[in-house]
Each structure stands twice: as C-alpha cells, then as structure tokens.
Amino acid sequence: MASVETAAEHERILREIESTDTNCIGPTLRSVYDGQEHGLFMEKLDARIRNHDREIEKMCNHHFQGFVDSITELLKVRGEAQKLKSQVIETNRRLQEDGKQLTCSMEELTQCRVQQRNIATTVDKLTHCLPVLEMYSRLQEQMSAKRYYPALRTLEQLESTCLPRAGQYRFCSIMAENIPKLRTQIRDTAMTQLRDFLESIRKHSDKIGETAIKQAQVQRSLDSSVTVQPRALISRRGRRAAVAAGTASNRHNGNPLSEQDSGILDVEEEEDDVPGAQDLVDFSPVYRCLHIYTVLGLRDEFENYYRKQRRKQARLVLQPHSNMHETLEGYRRYFNQIVGFFVVEDHVLHTTQGLVNRAYVEELWELALSKIVAALRTHSSYCDDPDLVLDLKNLIVLFADTLQGYGFPVSQLFDMLLEMREQYGEILLKKWNITFRHILDQDNYSPIPVSTELEYRNYASQFPLQDPELEKLPFPKKLPFSEFVPKVYSQLKEFIYACLKYSEDLHLSSTEVDDMIRKSTNLLLTRTLSHCLQYAIKKKNVGLAELVQVIINTTHLEQCCHFLEEFISNITNVPPDTANATKLYGTSTFKDARHAAEAEIYTSLNTKIDQFLQLADYDWMSAAQDSKNLMTSDFLLDLIAFLRSTFSVFTNLPGKVAQTACMSACKHISTSLMQLLLDPEVRQISIGALHQLQVDVNECESFARAGPVAGFQGDTLLLAFSDLRQLLDLFTQWDWSTYLADYGKPSCRYLRVNPHTALALLEKMKETSRKNNVFAQFKKADRDRQKLIDTIIKQLRNLIAQHHV
Question: How confident is the model at residue 447 (pLDDT cuts 50, 70, 90)?
Fold first, then answer.
C-alpha cells in the first residue's frame, strides 16, 4: 500500500516538474530529498527522461526533411541578403552624403528657432523687468531729491504691480526686501521734516502774527467806515478753499502731490498781497507727511501726533512772560505769537482734508481765549499808566479784529475790554488826582490879571467866560477867578477825551459811549475833584483870602457845568436831552466844595476870634466904676480891627456867604464872652467886671451897627449880641422885678435871658458879695442886699422848677 502511495506521489512530483516553471522547482525537489525514497524517484525520473527522448527522436525524424529544406532555403537567402545589405549600405552612404547639407541646415534652423524662442522669452522677461528697474531708478532719484510722497507712491506701484510681474529674480528679491526699509526711511524722514516744520512755525509765529495784525490794521484804516471782512482775508479764504478742493480732487484721483504740486505757494505768488502765513512758512512738510502717512495707512496716528504737538505749542504760546505788563512790546509779542499760531491752524484747516477740523480749532480757541483773558486780567492789573492801558486796549482790539477776520469768536475779549474800562477809569482818576492837586498847590488864589485883548481871548478859549460886564471893562482888568479855574476846566475836557479814546473801536453805540463818558466824568467830579478841593480847603495854613477865592472859583466852575454837558454831547453825537441820559453831578460837586469852603471860613474865622479872646484878661473882682471912665479892652479893639479888614475882602463873595460869615463871627464873639462869664473856673464876679464887659459889648454893637458887610436889614446884626446885652442890662440895672414878672411873655424886656444863666451868674455875685461883706455884715444896707440876692436866687430856682414841670 505504501509503495502505491509513494509511486503516486512520485508521479505527481514529476508532473509538477514538467508543468512548473524552473524557478519554482526548488521546493518540489526539496520534498523529494526530505523523504526516504529519493532513489526510487531517481529511477522514475530516468525512465521519464528516456520516454521523452524517444518521443523527441520520433518528432525529429518526422520533421528532419523539412528542416533540411529550410536550411537550404536559408543558405540561398543569405546570398541575397548580402547583396541587399550591400545595396542598403550604398544607398545609406549616398543618402548620408545627400542629407548631410540638409542636416546642417536643419541644425542651423533648430538653433535659430531656439535662439528666437530665447530672444522672445528674454524680451518678455525684460518687458516685465525693465519697468521694475526704471521705477526703482526713479525711486532712487525721488529719494535723492527728497520728494518722498511721489517716492512712496512709486514704491507702492513697484510693490503691488511691477515686482509680481517681473518674476522671481534675485534683484527683485533684494528690492522686495528693501521696500519696508524704504517705507520706514520715508516715514521717519517725513516725521523729521514735520518736527522741523513744527519748530519752524514756533519760531515764526511771532512774525506771522505781526504780519497778520499789520494786514488787519491796514485793511481797517482803508475801510474803517464799513464793517466787512478784510478783502485780503476773504481772498485768502477763497484761495484756501480752492486749494483744499484741488487737494481733495487730486487725492481722490490718486495723483501724488509733492510740495511743488500742492499749489499753495504758486497761488500766493500770483497775488500782489500782503505776505500771509504761507509766504513766511513752507507748509509742504505738513502736506507731504500727511500724504505719506495716509498712503501708509497711518493717517490717524499722524493726526493725533500733529494735534498733540500743536496743543503743547499752544500751551507754550499762551504762557505769558512774567514781566509782560512792564512794556507794550511784551503784550505785542504775546499777541503776535497767538495770532501766528491760529493763522497757521486756520491755514492748515483750509488746505488739508481733516488734519485739523473746525471742532478741534474751536476747542483750541476756547482754551486759548480763557487763558488769554485770565492772563490779561492778571497782568493789566499791575499797570498804573493810563497811556499804556490805552495802547494795550488798542492792541487788544487789533488782536481781536485780526482773529475775527479769520472766523474766531472774540466777544469775550471785548467783554474783558469793558471790564478793563473800569480799571482804566481808576487809573485816570489817580492821574487826574495828582494833576488837580498839583494845580491847587501851584495856584496863587488870586484873581487873574489881564493886560491885553490877546490874553483875555486866550483865557476865554480855555474857559467859557459869561460876564458881559467884565468884557466892557477896559484893560488892564482882572478875571474874578484864579488860574485854578481854566486849568481845571481844561483838565476836565482832557479827561473826557481820554475816556473817549478808550471807547473807540469797542463796537459800542453812541449812547453807550456817551453814558460811559458821563459816568466816568461823574466819578472824576464827585470823587477825585471833590477830594482835591476838600484837601485844598482843609489843609493847614489856608488863609481866609484863599478860602474866599476857592468859593469864587467853585462858583464859576459850577456855572460852566452845562458847557461840559454840551461838550460831551458834541463829541458823542448824543443830544443831552436823550431819555435815560446820565446827568453830570458837577453842580452838586462844586456846591459841596463851596459849602465846605464856607464852613471852613466860618471855622477859621471863629478860630481867629478865639485866638483874640484868649488874650482877654478881665479882672472879675474889680470895684465898681462909672462906665464913662471905663475903656474898651485892647484885645477887643484888635479883634474888631481884624474883622473889619477881613470883611472888606468878602466883597467878591456871594452876599449870603459874607452875611453868614459876619453873623457867625458876631454870634461867636457873643457866645464866647458869655462863656467867659459862665466859666466854672471863675467863681466870683463883681459888678465892676460886668460894667467892663458891658463897655466891650457896646463896642461890639457899635461894630455891628456900622454894617461891616452889606445886605443886613436894620439892626439884624445886633441880634447876635442880644442875649449878652439883655443879661448885662438885667444885672447892671438890677431889674429883677421886671424879669420875674414878665418872664415867658413875648413882650418881656429880658426875653433872651435864660433863668439858668441868670442863676449861675447871680450865685457868682453872691459869693463875691458874701466875701466882701464878711466884716461889714452889721451894715443894714449890705444885709438887705444879701437878703435880696438870696430871695432872687430862690425865686429863680422856683421859676426853673415850674418850667421843668
């Protein structure tokens, strides 16, 4: 059984060897050698080989004749093939010889075609590269020429258009690498130029402002009657608007603008105009930097930087110097810098699109306006020179008009000028106070002598003389007033002119100017001049003659007040009878001064009388004598002589003043003599002393009857001595029964004798009587007199008590 299987296996292996590719026979043979029957397999393999050999031999025998025939045919074909080969070689040789020239031509054609293709490729590449190189060359030229905005636009075109078309070349890579560096360089250079520009306009602000202010001043002087915006300012505004529109159009169209392309300088050069800000400062760095930053996409950053720097410069410009108030030039430099700053901002506003806007400029102006007003209020408060204040006011008006021409609101400045008007008025009052005092100190308080008609007309031109009788008098003659009157009147007019000068150009109506001048003049009259007159009246060593002249002067000044009213109306063109018009208080001022002088005359006269009365030396214990043997006291004679000479000077005074002074003097003499009688230090008075006093009173009454001052009716002046006269008559005549019986009746002879006064004097006489009669008390007459005095004293006390109840 095993041999059968082995044989079957060997058969399978043989079939597999016959049918399998020789490359895969290894595993089959390995399976034979792995077994134990390889010898048997070899035998079967040999048998199979012999079998195949027999089959091959049978097949060869069967096909041998055909093979021989084929060999024979093949030999025949070889000969023909040799011939054919020779012919082919010959044909090939001839072909090669004939095609050699064609091959050369073809090679040349091929080479030409390659060259043509290379040339076309090169031309194409150069077509793309040459614009890059040309543009880069132009970029370098623009950078060298510092035309950075066109360079930046060239750089942008090079990067976005030309380099992508050129392809990947090394020089393109180098260019591409340099583009960010060039952008940074352009940006940094533009910023450096901007900083230089900012520094330049900071330095040139003074000059720009000075030029703008001069331009406004010239324009105002050319057309002061019409309130319009200056032509030059309008033309500049129109030109700026046109330039701004052109700038916007060019930017919209993508045309790069350089400093030459902006048109700012060219437009200005075409006008025969006063140089403007653009003529003094080159604004091209601003436009260039704005365009560059706009192209770089950094416009907001640039705007913020520019505005921040300008705000810093504004703070510096608005900070005044500490000594600005000392000279007008300090204020002028301050205003010039501010005007220059805002003229530049206004120019930038109208020549750029949004670098600064109206809101920003207005905000900056509001800040500036508040600081300007504060600085002017502070520094002007230090000023005490009216001329400097007036020049400062004119400078502020010119400053305000200049900025108003550029569209800035300046109402606060004019409001501040109205506030400064009060300060100016105070300074004027101080100055005129010194002037008036100087006039008063230098015045001789004497009527002005006039020798010729020319002198008279000269004084008439200074002061309105309204005295027809004086004009009729021949020369030489005297004006009733002293030099003080025309000088004060002229100074009043000068003050009014000074007030009018300040009111000019403040855009006030005639009524407002008139009211302002009148109020200031009233202050001058009621405060300054009034105080000066009081000073002249109250100062020491002022004589009665000087006081009399002061009264005469103030009377004439009072009479000329309506001329001042007319003078103010003429210079302000406002009728004096206008409703709500302020009236001058000159009349009341001079009346008050005259009343003060009159009171001072009365006081001075009484003081002089007191000095004479201090010389009185009455012997209050003198013995009784006959009145005919008594003489008037020396002091009283001197006093009356003084009064006569004094009242002779009063002839030029108003009648009531002289009468009042005379009456006051007489009353003061009477009162003073009464006080001598009632002096508490005088404890005893004899009847002889009363007789002496009665003689002195008689002399005073004789003086009063003589009429030292005209105008008294009858014995009116004697009434000043009636109290003293009745008292002395009562005691010297010892008429007590009449006094006590008629007391309180209108017809009483001793109506002016006060019971208190009589009681006090009677008690002094009682003491005298008691002392004199110490050793004569046993005499009946003396005892009776003493009892009578006691009885009268008792009755007087009862009378006083009754009237008190």
Answer: confident
768 CB-near residues (< 8 Å, 6+ apart) = 621, 684, 685, 686
Count Cα neighbours of 762 within 13 Å in the Cβ-side half-sphere: 26
* CATH for 735: 1.20.58.670
CB of 211 closer than 8 Å to CB of 276: yes
**pLDDT classification of 113: cutoffs 50, 70, 90:** very high
Here the tokens at position 327 are: 């000279």
Considering only CA atoms, which of 629, 464, 481, 454 is closest in space to residue 552?
481
DSSP string, 238-290: HHHHHHHHHHHHHHHHT----TTTS-HHHHHHTS-----HHHHS--HHHHHHH
In the listed set 91, 119, 147, which residue is the last one of a domain according to the structure?
A: 119
Buried b or exposed e, range 766-794, using 16+ CB within 10 angstroms: bebbeeebeeeeeeeeeeeeeeebeebbe
Q: Are residues 442 and 400 in the same domain?
A: no
| 561: amino acid identity, one letter | C
Token pair of 800, please? Answer: 């006083």
The Cα 593–Cα 605 span in angstroms is: 18
C-alpha dist (Å) from residue 752 to 243, 719, 796 = 103, 10, 15
Q: Is the domain of 579 the same as that of 679? A: no
CA–CA distance from 258 to each of 136, 284, 415, 531 (Å)?
A: 18, 8, 45, 72
Sequence-ordered list of residues with C-beta below 8 angstroms from that of 235, at least 6 positions apart, any chain = 271, 273
Checking if the pLDDT of 484 tops 70, the result is yes
| 400, 412 Cβ separation under 8 angstroms | no
Helix 38-144 to helix 2-19 angle (10° resolution) is 40
**What's the mean pLDDT when you consider all of the chain?**
80
Q: What residues have CB less than 8 Å from 499, skipping those under 6 apart?
A: 425, 428, 516, 517, 520, 521
Q: Residue 532 belongs to what domain range?
A: 425-446+482-602
Tracing tokens 């005892």 back to the chain, one arrives at 783
Q: Rounded to an integer, what distance in angstroms lies between the CA atom of residue 66 and that of residue 384?
A: 155
Q: CA neighbours within 13 Å on the CB side: how many for 647? A: 25
pLDDT the model gives residue 230: 39
How far is it, in rounded angstroms, from Cα 567 to Cα 585?
A: 15
Q: What does 645-704 look like in DSSP terms, one character per residue?
A: HHHHHGGGS-HHHHHHHHHHHHHHHHHHHHHHHT-TT-----HHHHHHHHHHHHHHHHHH
Q: Are residues 682 and 779 in the same domain?
A: yes
Which of these three, 99, 119, 139, is where a domain ends?
119
Same domain, 713 and 746: yes
Q: Which two three-digit tokens encode residue 791? A: 């009885």
Q: Does residue 72 belong to any structural domain of this protein?
A: yes
Does residue 124 fall inside a structural domain?
no
624 and 595 within one domain: no
- C-beta separation of 17 from 28 below 8 A: yes
With beta carbons less than 8 A apart as the criterion, state whether 458 and 483 touch. Answer: no
Give Cα separations from 53 to 16, 44, 48, 59 (angstroms).
Answer: 19, 14, 9, 10
In this structure, the answer to whether residues 75 and 213 fall within a common structural domain is no
How far is 242 from 267, CA to CA, in rounded Å?
A: 10
- Residue 420 belongs to a domain: no
> pLDDT-based confidence at 792, cuts 50/70/90?
confident
- Say if residue 49 is in the same domain as residue 111: yes
Residue of 362, 358, 375 whose CA lies nearest to 410: 362
Residues 6+ apart with CB under 8 A from 587: 558, 561
Q: Within a 10 A sphere around the Cβ of 504, how many other Cβ atoms?
A: 12
